[in-house]
From TrEMBL:
<dbReference type="InterPro" id="IPR011559">
    <property type="entry name" value="Initiation_fac_2B_a/b/d"/>
</dbReference>
<keyword id="KW-0486">Methionine biosynthesis</keyword>
<dbReference type="GO" id="GO:0046523">
    <property type="term" value="F:S-methyl-5-thioribose-1-phosphate isomerase activity"/>
</dbReference>
<feature type="active site" description="Proton donor">
    <location>
        <position position="245"/>
    </location>
</feature>
<dbReference type="InterPro" id="IPR005251">
    <property type="entry name" value="IF-M1Pi"/>
</dbReference>
<keyword id="KW-0028">Amino-acid biosynthesis</keyword>
<keyword id="KW-0413">Isomerase</keyword>
<feature type="binding site">
    <location>
        <begin position="54"/>
        <end position="56"/>
    </location>
    <ligand>
        <name>substrate</name>
    </ligand>
</feature>
<comment type="pathway">
    <text>Amino-acid biosynthesis; L-methionine biosynthesis via salvage pathway; L-methionine from S-methyl-5-thio-alpha-D-ribose 1-phosphate: step 1/6.</text>
</comment>
<comment type="function">
    <text>Catalyzes the interconversion of methylthioribose-1-phosphate (MTR-1-P) into methylthioribulose-1-phosphate (MTRu-1-P).</text>
</comment>
<dbReference type="InterPro" id="IPR042529">
    <property type="entry name" value="IF_2B-like_C"/>
</dbReference>
<feature type="site" description="Transition state stabilizer">
    <location>
        <position position="165"/>
    </location>
</feature>
<feature type="binding site">
    <location>
        <begin position="255"/>
        <end position="256"/>
    </location>
    <ligand>
        <name>substrate</name>
    </ligand>
</feature>
<feature type="binding site">
    <location>
        <position position="204"/>
    </location>
    <ligand>
        <name>substrate</name>
    </ligand>
</feature>
<dbReference type="InterPro" id="IPR037171">
    <property type="entry name" value="NagB/RpiA_transferase-like"/>
</dbReference>
<comment type="similarity">
    <text>Belongs to the EIF-2B alpha/beta/delta subunits family. MtnA subfamily.</text>
</comment>
<dbReference type="InterPro" id="IPR027363">
    <property type="entry name" value="M1Pi_N"/>
</dbReference>
Amino acid sequence: MKINGVQYRSVRVDPEDNRTVLIFDQTRLPFSLDVLRLTECGQVAHAITSMQVRGAPLIGAVAAYGLALALRTDPDDVAMERDAAMLAATRPTAINLRWAIDRMLAKLRPLKPEDRVEAAYAEAALICDEDVAQNEAIGRHGLSLIESIAKDKKKTGTINILTHCNAGWIATVDWGTALAPIYMAHDMGYDVHVWVDETRPRNQGAALTAWELGSHGVPHTVIVDNAGGHLMQHGMVDLVIVGTDRVTAQGDVANKIGTYLKALAAKDNNVPFWVALPSTTIDWTVTDGVREIPIEERAASEVTHVAGQMEDGLIGRVRITPRDSAAANPAFDVTPARLVTGLITERGRCAASAAGLHALFPEQAT
């Protein structure tokens, strides 16, 4: 996607040395567009745990490059397995991370240590290219949903889409998942408007989704997380599209905390609730999302404090709760498949069910 007319990917290798990994520091957006230069595996792990880089597909891609950086220091078997395990443990909920590390190891284990660095960079680059192609395909399959709404409205009136958290190009290598159909519809001239949930406690919607959409020229409005149900009750939402960090073999969806409540409101108001994802986000080993998906518990300080830009332009953090109040911070929740209208994947759309998923991915049927 473009920022001020310049094409970017969310992760790339510095063309000057073909080794250093470049990412955007997402903790600085939208106030500052800072590029981080990652030269060591430990820096990659820190970037993932601190959410300088986030978004399930992007975490996997960056972790793949992290293993390549680790191999530059020590390419032997013991070090490779140790560093891979360390990277895989940085975020427990997003399945793409484990998928990317497993794929890298499958490629690298049969090779001689001296051949692993070049192979690792090549495989990480392939993971990135595949992610871009998958997300573009997701965009095309999701676009037809927006086109159908436009036809129902007889091309009069704005198409209002609600999204939660950030599932745009900054959360993937390019295009995004939930936002890809919106970008395509906007570029084709459809009158789309996006309701952007702020997405407490880290405000990825207010900070990242709003920044992305604004940079691309897509009309949008930031709303507090609890406004979505009200808007649906008054006919002000035509479609909900969200991303996901893990989907079970039965179609349950793990996404940023608050997604479940949006799905309940959508169900109650007959608003279509779609989830966009690459197939790498499907965990075929899990059937019951509520019971089996590990939910990351992040620091209480993300709840008790909020970051923002002061009137003088400085960026700072302020406390918003009493000092003696405890805070809990589950980062994700699980939306049962029964509340999901359908899934949008690179192979097409399907019902959020085992039968629906197997229809698109018959090779996974047992």
